[in-house]
From TrEMBL:
Belongs to the LAMTOR5 family. It comes from Cotesia congregata. Its main location: cytoplasm. One of its GO terms (cellular component) is Ragulator complex. The lineage of its organism: Eukaryota, Metazoa, Ecdysozoa, Arthropoda, Hexapoda. One of its GO terms (biological process) is cellular response to amino acid stimulus. This is Late endosomal/lysosomal adaptor and MAPK and MTOR activator 5. It is found in: Cytoplasm; Lysosome. It holds the Pfam family LAMTOR5. Keywords: Cytoplasm, Lysosome. One of its GO terms (molecular function) is guanyl-nucleotide exchange factor activity.
Length: 67
């Protein structure tokens, strides 16, 4: 189930890459134009975002002019 969900999301129009981390920031998977080295900071952002809506799972979308 994990790989199916991850693969489907990474093929959505307009998404250049996806990264999946655990709560500790360990990179569990990366697809497309994304650096696995960013897993830790993305996990930290998701942790902070989850405090805004404790009953919801955060979805983090980052935009950049350089990538």
């Amino acid at each position: 189930m994990f790989f199916f969900t991850f693969n489907c999301r990474s093929k959505t129009a307009g998404i250049m890459g996806c990264i999946l981390t655990d709560k500790s920031g360990l990179c569990l998977g990366a697809k497309g134009n994304v650096s696995p080295d960013s897993a830790g900071i993305i996990a930290a952002i998701a942790n902070q975002a989850s405090k805004l809506e404790p009953l919801e799972t955060p979805v983090i979308s980052l935009q950049s002019d350089s990538r």
